[in-house]
Amino acid sequence: MDTMTRTMGEHFGKWLQGQRLALGLTTRDMGRQLGCSHNAVSLLERGKLKPSPEMIRKVAEALGVSVDDATIATFPDEFSDHDRQLLRRWLNQHGD
């Protein structure tokens, strides 16, 4: 995983974990909702697994947030709106 992808994965993972915990869900609960194992959820939360566009959509649906909100969660806070738009385009083109 390159540095950009790793950084995006780490930010998404922290956001996902915060959202999951705020809802009182375990990694098993989240895995069931996403159709994956609790281990995959743990890897996502630790930034060890890159969130594909499809996974971002599933997470958004499971958490009841927009896909845009879930996508933006992959971007470091210091990125400008322009950077976020470019990264969103990149994610859509390079997702698994």
Labels describing this entry:
mainly alpha, 6 helices, single chain, 96 residues, 434 Repressor (Amino-terminal Domain)
- What's the CATH H-level superfamily name? lambda repressor-like DNA-binding domains
Elements, N to C (H/E) = HHHHHH
Radius of gyration: 12 Å
- Helix percentage range: 55-70%
User: What is the fold named in CATH at topology level?
Assistant: 434 Repressor (Amino-terminal Domain)
Spatial separation of the terminal alpha carbons? 13 Å
- How many H/I helices? 6
Specify the structural class.
mainly alpha
Low-confidence stretches: none
Query: What's the β-strand tally?
Result: 0
- Count of discrete structural domains: 1
Shape: globular
Largest sheet: none
CATH top level is: Mainly Alpha
Instruction: Round the mean pLDDT to the nearest integer and report it.
Output: 86
Question: What would you say this structure looks like, in words?
Answer:
The structure is a single chain. The protein has 96 residues and is mainly alpha-helical. The protein contains 6 helices and no strands. It has helices spanning 3-22, 27-34, 38-45, 53-63, 67-72, 81-94. Helix 2 (27-34) packs across helix 3. It is globular. The model has no long low-confidence stretch (mean pLDDT 86).
